[in-house]
Amino acid sequence: MQKWDERLWLLTLEEYNELADGIKLECIDGDIYTKGLDYIDIDIRFGCIAFGLTQDLVREQELEHDFLLKLLKS
After folding, report:
1. Cross-strand pairs, 32
2. Nearest to 61 by CA among 20, 30, 31, 29
3. Phi, psi values for residue 63, rounded to 5°
4. What total of structural domains would you count in the chain?
5. What is the pLDDT along the chain (74 residues), one digit of tens a residue?
6. Which residues contact 33 (CB under 8 A, 6 or more apart)?
7. How does DSSP assign 50-63, residue by residue?
8. What range does the domain containing 51 cover?
C-alpha cells in the first residue's frame, strides 16, 4: 500500500487481488466502487492501482486486521 493523501491508501495489484468480492474501495477521484460488482481499472502507476482504502472504509467493513497486515507488508 502507498499513501495517496491524508486519507487514502492505494493498493498494489497483489493486495487488490487478495481482497474478497464485495469490498468497497475509494478511487482517487473520491468515488466508491465495489470489487466484483463495479468496473475497477487495474492499470498500475508507480506500483499501485488508483483505488484503495480509507480509515472510514476499513472500519465500516471491519477490515482492521487485513488493513494492518497490508500496511505492515508495504
Report:
1. 26
2. 20
3. -110, 20
4. 1
5. 999 999 999 999 999 999 999 999 999 999 999 999 999 999 999 999 999 999 999 999 998 888 877 777 77
6. 24, 25, 26, 27, 39, 40, 51
7. SEEE-HHHHHHTT-
8. 2-73
